[in-house]
Design brief:
alpha+beta; 19% helix; globular; 30% strand; 5 strands; two-stranded antiparallel ribbon; 3-stranded mixed sheet
C-alpha cells in the first residue's frame, strides 16, 4: 500500500451473487465503492436501472485490502 496515502485501509466484501442494489449497500458499509468494469463508460447506476441485476464477478476479490472509498469493479447480468 502507498505510504503517502492517508485514507484508512478496509477489507473488500464478497458481493458476488448479490443484486447490484444489495451489493452497493454492503460495499458502502465496508467503505468501498462499486464500479462497472469500463472506466470510460457510464456509471454503474445507469447500466443497471431499471430492473434487477445480479453481480457475477468482482475485482479485487473478497478479503483484499483497499483504501477507503477505492473502487471494486463488478460484472453483472440481468437477474
Amino acid at each position: 500500500m502507498d505510504e503517502r496515502r492517508h485514507a484508512d485501509v478496509v477489507t473488500v466484501p464478497d458481493v458476488v451473487g448479490m443484486t447490484v442494489r444489495d451489493g452497493r449497500r454492503v460495499a458502502t458499509e465496508a467503505g468501498v465503492a462499486l464500479a462497472q468494469p469500463d472506466p470510460d463508460g457510464p456509471p454503474l447506476g445507469a447500466l443497471t436501472w431499471p430492473g434487477v441485476w445480479v453481480i457475477t464477478a468482482q475485482d479485487p476479490p473478497p478479503g483484499s485490502q483497499l483504501y477507503r472509498w477505492d473502487s471494486v469493479r463488478v460484472w453483472f447480468r440481468r437477474g
